[in-house]
Structures are given as structure tokens and as C-alpha cells.
Amino acid sequence: MILIQLTGLSGAGKTTLAQGAKVSLEKQGYAVEVIDGDVYRQRLWPELSFSPTDRQENIRRLSYLGGLFCKQGIIVFIAAINPYESVRTEVSSLYPFVRTVYVHCDLPTLLKRDTKGLYARALLPEGHPDKLLNLTGINAPYEPPTHPHLVLNTGLYTAEQCTYELVSYLFSTLPSDVKNVGTKEVS
Ligand code: ADP
């Protein structure tokens, strides 16, 4: 089927939009799996750190899993920060059915949301025991995708609007032979 790698900073809305799209697609009869980077990482390989090498390894493993779901005819969203262009490109080149969606949000809005409290911790003074030292976008790099298939700006548009865009994009890119697979029969 198809694998969407959603990429963007923490709190940008990757999980929110993936879950919203899942609800919408399931109503139309499609099977959908959201691979939430936070959850999968914690459950499957908590020993991986947030070093550049381990972040890359995390994405490789998530995309391998995603590929397996895809081969079963499932639409897969990988909601992970996925900060490196090289790894995103690697994932795209491994599987023909990968699409890259950049979930963008401006930093002031992210700092205001800070739903997980991570930005507050990353911005603590040097030496503070609770300071996060590797938050992407603050003190760890984020490479915006150079050629994303779709950009969703959650700082400008509501979650509902962005979810609608995401689902619409999906329908425009689904191979025609699977487009009708999910359509529920109305009796
Ligand atoms: P991520 O998966 O990118 O870390 P989450 O989806 O977990 O981000 O969190 C995003 C938070 O921002 C949620 O609490 C969501 O309700 C909120 N939010 C506010 N506006 C938007 C928007 N336009 N799009 C997506 N999420 C939004």
C-alpha cells in the first residue's frame, strides 16, 4: 500500500494529524497503522539513545516495520521527528511506496504549545540537572526535507484543516488499483 513518513519537530502535530487521518481513512474502509515514534521506540528498543547514529537506526527499524505493514495492504504513517535528510532519502529509496510529508510549525508556536514540556527543559540554563541536551530544533539539528511531497503548516492552519489536506493528498497519490479497495460497500 503506502507509507507516509511524517517529519517535523516535536509537537509540530505529526501524531495528531496521523491519528486524524487514520480515523477518516478507517471510516472509508482502509486499514491504517500509525507508527508513533515515541511509543514504538519506548516499547521496542528503549536502549537506543538520541545520538545521531541511534536516531538513524531508530528510523531504519521503524521504516522496516512500516514496510511489513505496507506489504499487508495497510496504509502506514510513521510519526517520528526523523531529522536527517539522508535517512529519509534512504527510506524513500528502499521502498517505492514511500511519501514524505513535512509537518512544519514555527518555533514560537511550538514553544507556546510545549505539550510534552520538552522545550522548557531544553531552554533551561546550562548545568541545570533537568536540562534536555538534544532536543531537535533547539540543541540538536533538524534538516527540513528538500523535496517533500506535501508540506502542512500547523502554525497557520488548524489540525482539522491539515488532516483534511493530508487525507486529500493521500487519495491523490494512492495507486488507482488500490483506490477502491477500501471503499465500503453500501447495502
Ligand atoms: P508530534 O507528534 O509532532 O510531536 P503531537 O501531535 O504529539 O506532535 O502534538 C501536537 C500538539 O499540538 C497536540 O496537543 C495538538 O492538539 C496541538 N495542536 C495545536 N494546533 C495544531 C495543529 N494545527 N495541528 C496539529 N496539532 C495541533
What does this molecule look like?
The C terminus is likely disordered. This protein has a five-stranded parallel β-sheet with strand order 2-3-1-4-5, with helices on both faces. It is 44% helix and 14% strand. It has 187 residues and is α/β, with parallel strands linked by helices. The protein is built from eight helices and five strands; from the N terminus they run E-H-E-H-H-E-H-E-H-H-E-H-H. Helix 1 packs across helix 7. The structure holds adenosine-5'-diphosphate. The site of adenosine-5'-diphosphate has 17 residues, from helix 1 and helix 7. Adenosine-5'-diphosphate (ADP) binds next to helix 1 and helix 7.
Nutshell version of this structure?
By secondary structure, this protein is α/β, with parallel strands linked by helices. The protein has helices at 14-27, 37-44, 52-71, 85-94, 107-113, 118-122, 159-173, 176-179, and strands at residues 2-7, 32-36, 75-79, 98-104, 150-153. The protein starts with a strand and ends in an 8-residue tail after the last helix.
List the helices and strands and how they pair.
Layout: E1 2-7, H1 14-27, E2 32-36, H2 37-44, H3 52-71, E3 75-79, H4 85-94, E4 98-104, H5 107-113, H6 118-122, E5 150-153, H7 159-173, H8 176-179
Parallel strand pairs: 1-3, 1-4, 2-3, 4-5
The structure holds adenosine-5'-diphosphate.
Adenosine-5'-diphosphate binds at residues 8, 10-17, 79, 113, 115, 154, 157-159, 162.
